[in-house]
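In this section we walk through a basic example: taking a raw amino acid sequence and producing a predicted 3D structure, encoded as discrete structure tokens. The instruction is simple. Fold the sequence below.
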Amino acid sequence: MNKGELVDAVAGKASVTKKQAEAIVTATFEAIQETVASGDKVTLVGFGTFEARERQAREGRNPKTGDKMQIPATKVPAFSAGKVFKEKVSP
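The resulting token sequence is shown next.
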């Protein structure tokens, strides 16, 4: 399912126009991204948690040359599925 299909599904379930559904979906995604980027968590009970996680600096290899290289520490977005979501996917 891509964003357009998600918008169609939201419009059908919420009985709103596709334009309204697209605005809702886009605003939701933007709010989640802004909150996680600022260092906070977004917890949707029954669905899951979005958060930023620290990734340690580590040593890697250049796949072309095989030379060792340092990969710097960074923050990455992460999602942990909630209990209800996990149960729905794997009954």
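Looking at the output, two observations stand out. The helical segments are 3-14, 18-37, 83-89. The CA atoms of residues 4 and 55 lie 32 Å apart. In the next section we compare this with other chains.
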